[in-house]
Amino acid sequence: MSNIHRKRHLPPLAALPAFEAAARHQSFSRAAEELHLTHGAISRAVAQIEDRLGVELFVRRNRRVWLTAAGERLLKATSAALNGLDGAVEDIHRHDGASPILTVSCEPSLAMRWLMPRLGRFREANPDLNIDLRLAGGPVDLLADGCDVAIRRADYGISEQYITTRLWAEHAGPVCDPDCWETILAGNLSNARWLHARTRPDAWEVWKRASGNEATAASEQYFDHFFFALQAAVNRLGTAIGPLPLVYDDLKAGRLISPLGMAPTGYDYVLITLDPPDRDPRISLFFDWLMAEAGDMDGGALPGNDMVGPGKKI
Predict the structure, then answer these.
(1) How far apart are CA 193 and CA 185, in angstroms?
(2) Structural domains of the chain in order of their starting residue, each with its CATH number
(3) 0.85 exceeded by the pTM?
(4) pLDDT digits (tens, 9 = 90+) for 135-150
């Protein structure tokens, strides 16, 4: 007999995650913390399921709960179902190479100062693939965030569940307005106002260790974000530490100079993916384009010069 018209006697599906968490923890309070719900919401979800099934799933005594035999059976089935859904969603996400959209998570400063000005060229060369750019920094959860790839400065521990593919090594150095170096600072970094970012407060110290420079600041100014510190340098408010990709276009256009050159910071920029980039044609295409756009950036060469020495303009 056909089961096409079989009526399913399922409990409220929206309540099952609450039940599963409560059953796994044997605690409504811990389930509420995990799911960011109230204790009452967990209790109501469990009660809905019990009403539908006509059986008790928990024994409740003295603010503690234990699973009944029926609860144990439902937990086993619910866990298997939710795990199966998680696996299916991850499998779909991993193998959606035919999608016309590639969702990219990128650190805000890198996105605004390097990636976004180049995406027009990517679109012209690849009109059938659209880049959905998300601005975010730090640890990433590709599946939870709905992203295919992430571009990060690898200055934190990246989960081993991801594939990290090196893009280029970071080089950085002091940058300032072209006229500022000679007319205001007289070629002496210790005469400068040093611009800092609270999102990367150790940028100057990292550069000093990498370059062996022992200069000290004449004065200092702090900004909430690295992007603002770099823009302040363009606007002649002082001297900032400029990582090469973030100041490349300003150096090339002559808005900034790097009078003391660039030194390797010891950090890499990486592409973070669920699988090796060549498994997905969209990611492979984007990765190859990134590397072509980066050019010789990995060696710290500045636009127009092999390296810029003291007192030399771009």
Answers:
(1) 9
(2) 13-94 (1.10.10.10), 100-314 (3.40.190.290)
(3) no
(4) 998 888 888 888 999 9
